[in-house]
Amino acid sequence: MTDKPRPVLIAGPHRSGADGDPRPMAADLARRETAARPVFAAGHLPVTGARPAVPVRRDVAEIPRRTPQEAR
């Protein structure tokens, strides 16, 4: 467990194979937003954009749950 929130990149193909069609891109974004919910519930910051390059896991179960420390 960790007491510090971490940014977690939620990656997806977004434009890959979309041929400029906004419908598959919107569907991919919706899937990534759905995947982001349990990451947020674990106390971390889900990032759905591809720009921040942070190490990401393959399964939400691999992300340590955040355990906030009480103020001292």
Task: Show the helix and strand layout.
Layout: E1 7-9, H1 22-41, E2 45-47
Parallel strand pairs: 1-2
Would you kindly provide a brief summary of this structure?
This protein is α+β, with helices and mostly antiparallel strands.
In total, the number of strands is 2
Largest sheet: 2 strands, parallel
Q: Average pLDDT across residues? A: 80
State the secondary-structure class.
alpha+beta
Could you characterize what this model shows?
It contains one helix and two strands, in the order βαβ. Helices cover 28% and strands 8% of the residues. The protein has a two-stranded parallel ribbon with strand order 1-2. The mean pLDDT is 80. It has 72 residues and is of the alpha+beta class.
Task: Please describe the structure with a list of short key phrases separated by commas or semicolons.
alpha+beta, 1 helix, 72 residues, 2 strands, 8% strand, two-stranded parallel ribbon
